[in-house]
Structure formats: structure tokens, C-alpha cells
Amino acid sequence: MNKKVLVTGGLGFIGSHTVVALQKEGFEVIIIDNLSNSSIDVLGGITKITGTTPEFENIDLRDKQAVKRFFEKYTEIDGVIHFAASKAVGESVEKPLLYYENNISSLVYLLQELNERESANFIFSSSCTVYGQADKLPITEDAPVKKAESPYGNTKQIGEEIIQDICKVSPQLKAISLRYFNPIGAHPSADIGELPIGTPQNLVPFITQTAIGKRDELSVFGDDYPTEDGTAIRDYIHVLDLAEAHVHALKRLLQNNEKSNYEVFNLGTGQGNSVLEVIKAFEGSTGEKLPYKIVGRREGDITAAYADTTKANQELKWKAERSLEEALSSAWKWQLEVKKREEEDN
């Protein structure tokens, strides 16, 4: 019998690519998504790629009774991968209560249900934002978790603490927190990709929307950072590599070979690229010229962050394989597909 996996936020950017990776590995997937930052069309994209339509439930995880009803309906779930959360740093600074309600209450309600079971496997979508501006680069999992620079970052820190606390008293619950660096790119088929609603909060969708003419120019937030070209440095990982890491983490939980019932892994490439380097790589890999301007720094942003991936490479038997250029090319191909769909709809 196929193992059943619940993927919350499974129609979102990372969630949808992870659903594809899980289905390709033979897992049976059930998606929960409230479509607040995603589209039901993504379900069709997943089906087109894999040939299988995952089960879908339109549920808001802030509704405790709805979460309870879901687990009463689906009694046999072998693992939960929890993506559903608000994730824009800038927006979280402006709307902190929205972020605390959405990101924390949904996690608590899920864990309350899982804690009632004889055994449960849980993967938490965390973030390198928990490290703040790390003292040393690259960042290992042992780096201190610093005071968060934004409410979004704080929800990830609090989320990890909640999971750690429940794992201490519930040996039947096994959990892994995956600390992502900066996911970019799209599926090579261009059937699914990153589809921000409104103004993009992340660099690459802003780049592709600018290149296609949807935005007048790209704003580069700050050129006075203490880096080689003055722009901030991040570790950009192809979303397909990231998705595959979740499959490895899930298999680790299912195989019962983890050292403790709570573990943490960094997911990145191990290499940092500045904003200007990403712009040049995009222009080089697509042939598109990108208009941009330097503006002031953005609140909540740090200078540099890139991962030490040794632990994930060794323990999860996983490594990021795809290049920055490959990720940017796939993001551009996806943007062209989005434009084509928009024109067809009009």
C-alpha cells in the first residue's frame, strides 16, 4: 500500500513542486490549501506533470474544528509536510498579527491532532531567517538562533520551539525542521511555478515580471552593504532540489533511523550570490536586458546568508544539483507561460 502524505499549502510554490516529487516517488498525496495565496489551477499543473490528481481539501488551518474533521476523515496518514504559512518579510513587518495568527495557530492545531495518534511524522517548513545575521558564514545548524529581524522570522523561530517542546514529551511524534535558504525557479515543463499574488516580495519573480514588462524596473534594496558589490547576498536554491530534499527527509522519518525524534537541517546550495550577480546571471541565461534602480535598504533585511549543507548532504543523502542559471532560465520560461495564459484568458 502506498504511503499517504498530507501536504499543507500544497498548491503554493514550494508545496506544489514537493507534491510532484512525492508523487514521482510513489507517495499518495492529500493537499490542504485555502487558496489565499495560490490558485486551484495549480492542481491541473500537478496532474499534467505526474498523470495523477492528488486529493484536495479547501481548508483554512486556522479553523480548529475543520482541522479536527479532516483528521477524523483521513485516519491513515503516514506523514505531514507543513508549508501553509504567510511568508513575506516586508508584509510581516506591516501586519504582524496576521502572521502570528496564520503561522502559529495553524501549526498548533495540526500538532494537537498528530499528538493524539500512536505515531506521527511531521516536516516543518522553516527558514534561514531564524539565524538572523549569522556571526559566521557559511551557516551551520549549530549557529545560534538570533532575535528575529521580522515577525515572519519570529513565527519560524516560535514554530520550531513549539515542535521541539512537543517532541520532548511525545516520543511517538517525530519531526524534522527544514531551514530553507532562498528557493527560486520552476518546473522545467512550465506547468507549475512561483505565482505571487500582487507585488512580488521575492527577488526572482520581481526580476521575471520586470523582464516581461509587467513592472517598469526592478528595485535593488541597498548597494551599501559590506559585500563586494554592495548588494545583499543570499543562497539561491532551485525549487526542484528543495522539493527532493523533502522526500529524503520524509523517508528518513519513515525509516526510523534518526538519532532523535527532532532534527534540523539547512537546505541550500552552500554558495552565496549577490543581488547584482543574480541580475547578471538572469541576463546571461535568458538574453533579456533588465532595467533596475538602486533604492534604500528594506526593513528586516540582512547583509548575507548562505548555508553549510554538510549535515543535509551526509544525513539526508541529498545535495542541491542544479545551477543558478538553470533555476533562472526555468523561472523565465514559467513567466512566459504565465503571460501566455493571461493573454488567452483575455
From TrEMBL:
<dbReference type="InterPro" id="IPR016040">
    <property type="entry name" value="NAD(P)-bd_dom"/>
</dbReference>
<comment type="pathway">
    <text>Carbohydrate metabolism; galactose metabolism.</text>
</comment>
<keyword id="KW-0520">NAD</keyword>
<dbReference type="Pfam" id="PF16363">
    <property type="entry name" value="GDP_Man_Dehyd"/>
</dbReference>
<comment type="similarity">
    <text>Belongs to the NAD(P)-dependent epimerase/dehydratase family.</text>
</comment>
<keyword id="KW-0413">Isomerase</keyword>
<dbReference type="GO" id="GO:0006012">
    <property type="term" value="P:galactose metabolic process"/>
</dbReference>
<feature type="domain" description="NAD(P)-binding">
    <location>
        <begin position="6"/>
        <end position="328"/>
    </location>
</feature>
<dbReference type="InterPro" id="IPR036291">
    <property type="entry name" value="NAD(P)-bd_dom_sf"/>
</dbReference>
<keyword id="KW-0119">Carbohydrate metabolism</keyword>
<dbReference type="GO" id="GO:0005829">
    <property type="term" value="C:cytosol"/>
</dbReference>
<dbReference type="InterPro" id="IPR005886">
    <property type="entry name" value="UDP_G4E"/>
</dbReference>
<dbReference type="GO" id="GO:0003978">
    <property type="term" value="F:UDP-glucose 4-epimerase activity"/>
</dbReference>
<comment type="subunit">
    <text>Homodimer.</text>
</comment>
<protein>
    <recommendedName>
        <fullName>UDP-glucose 4-epimerase</fullName>
        <ecNumber>5.1.3.2</ecNumber>
    </recommendedName>
</protein>
